[in-house]
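Subject: Sanity check before I submit

Could someone independently write out the C-alpha cells for this chain? I want to compare against mine line by line before I put it in a report. The sequence has 275 residues.
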Amino acid sequence: MAVLASGVLGAGLAACGGGSEAEPDAAGADDAAVDVPIPVDEDAAAPAPEAGVRDVAAPDAAGKGFCATRSPTPRFCDDFDDGDLDDDWTIQTVLNGAPILDTSSATSIPASFAVETLPIGSNQSAHVHLRASVDGAPTGHVILAFDLMLATTSYTKGTIAIATLDISQDHFFTLYLRDGDPDAPAPALEETNGATRTRHVLSKLPPVLTWTHATIDIDIGAAQATVLWDSEKVLDAAPIAAGPADEPTIRVGAVYVYGPADPFEARFDDVTLDF
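---
Independent answer below. Compare away.
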C-alpha cells in the first residue's frame, strides 16, 4: 500500500509560497483568481523512478507508457510520465496550494500528479488543478477517467471537488468528495445546466491510501450520469438534463476547496477523456 509523502508535498508548498494563480471558471465563477496558459517545455526529461515505488505499471517492452499503449487512442490522455507536469494541459491553476510531479507512487511509472492545499478559513478558497479542452461534438458517452489516491476519506469541513467534466459551455458536472449542501454535506456529482443545479449524491467515498480508478460517464443520448470507483457504481444512471454536447472541458486535482477547510492531499494519474 502506498502512502502519500507529506514531506514531499510540504516542500512543494514551501516553494510555492501559498500559490500564485487561480481561476474564475464557468463551474466556479466566484473564485477570485485567474487562469494562466501553460508554456510547453518539449525538452523536459523524464525523472528516473525512485526505489520503493508501489502499485505501478511499468512501460511495455518497447518502452511505451500508459498513454502510448491505449488502443484506440483516447481523445485526451496524460500519464505524467514525460517529466513535465502540465505540458499536455491548457491551463494550470494554483492558489493556496502546490502541484507536484511526484515519483513516490504512481499507477504508471515513473510519476503522478500530487496536490496539497493549505488550511483555509471562512470565505477563502484553494485550487490546484489542471484544465484541458477537446474539440468535438459528442453524441454518445463522454467519459472522464483517472486514477486517484486520497490521504484521508474523513472530510468534516469545507467543500472539496476533485474533477469537473463540462460537456458544453453551460452544462457541466462537478465531482465532490464533500459538497456544499448546508444540511448534510456528502460526496456528490453536481450537475449545472444553465442556472439550474442538481445534486446527485454518491453512495460512498473512494477508499483511503490506495489507488482507485474513478470514472465519470455522461451518456448524452440517454441523458444519464454514472460514477464508478473501480468497477463499483456509486451513482448509477442518474437522470440528467438532455441537450447537445460540444468541446468537452475537464479539470483534475484540488479543483475547488472552499473554507473553512483542513489541508487536502491527493494524487492523480493516467487521466483520459473519451467520446
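---
OP: Matches mine. For the report I'm noting this point. The CA atoms of residues 17 and 235 lie 38 Å apart.
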